[in-house]
Amino acid sequence: MSEIDLQIYVISDGTGETADQMIKAALLQYVREGLKIIRFKNIRTEIQVRSIFEEAHAVNAIVVYTVVSDNLRKFIDSISQQTGVPTVDLLGPLLEKLSRYLKKNPQSQPGLFHQVNENYFKRIEAIEFTVKHDDGKYADSLDRADIILVGLSRTSKTPLSVYLSYKGWKVANVPLVKDIEPPPELFQTDQRKIIGLLIDPETLAKIRRERLVKMGESPSGDYANLNHVIAEIDFCKDLFRRNRRWPVFDITGKALEETASEVEKVIKSALPEKWGHVT
Hints:
single chain, 279 residues, Rossmann fold, 2 domains, four-stranded parallel beta sheet, 8 strands
């Protein structure tokens, strides 16, 4: 048989990516052309394994597998002996060594590595989306957000957005400015994912003054003026009254984590078809 006819069958109860990468790393040590790697994903039953081995036997393939189920690994070993198809167990020996060392049995739950990877990339995507949609940017794609925060300047929109994004939420935040209507896209998206933020006016005025001083600017203008801040908050309250579907949170004196937890709970409850009911 020529090298071009050789095939490696990969059996995995997950995506098979781990085995695929290990095989390719090993094959770098060989000069070869045309060798095929054929991956069989989400293999969980003996019937599936038997069918693969029948095919592997017919084409004289070698089987490399990553399977967490002890029973399925034993079956693969048994059918390998019956058919004469050579096999390489990439995961079994490692699990056995770790079980002895850690003095505990593995969970034997397929796909955990893929789930961890998937969650990681989901968080990265959420963070990138959130940073891009900070402070009202890219209003034309608000519909892609999981959560939309609206509030005045210095009401913790950005830190709250970033905190939620680290938990996997795509968050956009839209600044509210007195006497200026928010972008029309805000009212065209699903209103259930919009959260209003309020704060005590004296607290907000103090935060703004400290911000201006830190930036080397004079705190004497309207931005940190208490009467102006009160007028801004009244503007927000009026907007929130006109859009009663928006839950409103007063963040005065609240820790970021506390507000984030409340926001998550409300969003999950408001969108059960997407996030499931809160228990």
